[in-house]
């Protein structure tokens, strides 16, 4: 079949072109309308995680740096002079009360004891003679065989002999005591230092200030920890001392914690046992002391440590995750979600850090606030959000439903 082409007129072509333009314009207008509707609707609310503050009973703590000191410390010095004969310990070892430490050459003192005993024997012999003479004189003076003067001479000789025996006995005791002092024994239990004198050297003894120092001994268990705190803290402690739970209430045996320089937590427990009675005029501080058990000997006199003492009585507090707190210059704030699901900025007063995660909020927050705990960096005050709850604000729980641990010290 033959195809028959019909020629189109100029008016028909113009009509088709106009129809195409109308279709294109209609499409463009429809797309612009959809864009304006989408722009007017805006982005969806930012999803954030919220949780109410944690309610918990906490105690504020103060921390101080101090040193360990031995409860007992002794300088081992000789009471008699002589040449050092032997050393009976190893440098740095633990010794018990009464352990033999040093021996001084005993021979001169043994000779002194023998001489004193001989003098005592002579005095006792003379006493026996004068006593017998005195007894005979009593009968003779009655019979008028001897005069009264002769009898008084015999009485005097008898009394002098008794006195001589007493003096000789004292000399024997002194010589025996000096012989005993040639053996130097530990007066306390503890750790002994290194020997300061080697055998063969002359040791100067006695009670003067020029005696020879042989060694030192310090007790190890228990051990003191001494620190100082300022006058303002002392006043605060004193005002709370009536409750019996403050370090300034002397004799209250307040429990304290301690950590060493290589430890991250206060794992050692002790108690307060002393607060000084004067404030140092130079530094404006007062000295406190705690006592700790040291069965394993880790604590050494002179060692540094950090002690944590209770600064307040236990109180109910609100806590939020430390990551939920923002900073605005010197002020701290948290973001909460109001009833219209919009963020609200609240300035807060911070307290101590607990468990290394939760921060005590002392002012600026209420128990019913929904605090943004995740997504704080994506929102700003007044912005609509899509809050997603996490955890419960009940005592003993923290956001995320994890159980709470014991409070940590304040920073």
How much β-strand is present in the residues?
25-35%
Instruction: Compute the number of structural domains.
Output: 4
Mean pLDDT across every amino acid position? 83
Radius of gyration: 47 Å
CATH class placement of the largest domain:
Mainly Beta
State the distance separating the first and last CA atoms.
101 Å
User: In one word, what is the shape?
Assistant: elongated
- Helix fraction by DSSP (H/I, runs of at least 4): 25-40%
Please provide a brief summary of the model:
With 411 residues, this protein is of the alpha+beta class. The chain has 4 helices and 25 strands.
Kindly describe this structure.
The protein is built from four helices and 25 strands. The relative contact order is 0.18. Helices cover 27% and strands 34% of the residues. It folds into four domains: 100 residues, conserved putative lor/sdh protein from methanococcus maripaludis s2 fold, CATH 2.40.420.20; 99 residues, Efflux pump adaptor protein, beta barrel domain (Elongation Factor Tu (Ef-tu), domain 3); 66 residues, Beta Barrel (OB fold (Dihydrolipoamide Acetyltransferase, E2P)); 74 residues, Orthogonal Bundle (Helix Hairpins). With 411 residues, it is an alpha+beta fold. Strand 19 and strand 20 form a beta hairpin. The strands form five sheets. Strands 1, 2, 17, 18, 19, 20, 21, 22 and 23 form a nine-stranded mixed β-sheet that branches. It has a six-stranded antiparallel β-barrel with strand order 3-12-15-14-13-16. The protein has a four-stranded antiparallel β-sheet with strand order 4-11-9-6, with no helix packed on it.
């Amino acid at each position: 079949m033959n195809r028959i082409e019909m020629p189109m007129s100029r008016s028909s072509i113009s009509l088709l072109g106009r129809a195409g333009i109308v279709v294109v314009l209609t499409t463009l207008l429809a797309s612009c309308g959809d864009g304006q509707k989408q722009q007017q609707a805006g982005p969806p609310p930012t999803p954030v995680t919220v949780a109410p503050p944690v309610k918990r009973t906490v105690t504020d703590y103060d921390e101080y740096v101090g040193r360990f000191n031995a409860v007992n410390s002794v300088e081992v010095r000789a009471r008699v002079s002589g040449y050092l004969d032997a050393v009976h310990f190893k440098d740095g070892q633990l010794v018990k009360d009464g352990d033999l430490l040093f021996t001084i050459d005993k021979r001169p003192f043994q000779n002194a004891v023998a001489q004193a005993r001989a003098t005592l024997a002579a005095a006792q012999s003379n006493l026996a003679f004068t006593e017998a003479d005195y007894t005979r004189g009593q009968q003779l003076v009655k019979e008028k065989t001897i005069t009264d003067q002769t009898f008084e001479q015999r009485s005097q000789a008898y009394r002098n002999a008794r006195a001589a025996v007493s003096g000789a006995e004292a000399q024997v005791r002194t010589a025996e005591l000096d012989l005993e002092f040639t053996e130097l024994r530990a007066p306390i239990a503890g750790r002994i230092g290194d020997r300061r004198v080697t055998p063969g050297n002359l040791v100067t003894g006695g009670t003067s200030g020029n005696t020879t120092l042989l060694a030192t001994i310090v007790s190890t268990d228990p051990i003191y920890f001494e620190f100082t705190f300022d006058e303002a803290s002392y006043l605060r402690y004193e005002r709370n001392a009536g409750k019996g739970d403050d370090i300034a209430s002397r004799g209250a045996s307040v429990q304290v914690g301690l950590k060493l320089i290589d430890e991250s937590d206060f794992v050692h427990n002790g108690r307060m046992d002393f607060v000084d009675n004067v404030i140092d005029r130079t530094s404006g501080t007062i000295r406190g002391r705690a006592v700790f058990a040291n069965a394993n000997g880790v604590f050494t006199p002179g060692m540094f440590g950090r002690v944590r003492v209770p600064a307040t009585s236990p109180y109910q507090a609100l806590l939020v995750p430390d990551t939920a707190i923002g900073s605005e210059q010197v002020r701290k704030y948290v973001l909460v979600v109001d009833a219209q699901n919009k963020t609200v900025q609240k300035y807060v007063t911070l307290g101590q850090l607990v468990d290394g995660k939760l921060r005590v909020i002392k002012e600026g927050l209420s128990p019913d606030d929904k605090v943004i705990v995740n997504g704080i960096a994506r929102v700003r005050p007044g912005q609509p959000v899509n809050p997603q709850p996490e955890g419960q604000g009940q005592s003993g729980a923290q956001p995320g439903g994890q159980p709470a641990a014991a409070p940590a010290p304040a920073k």
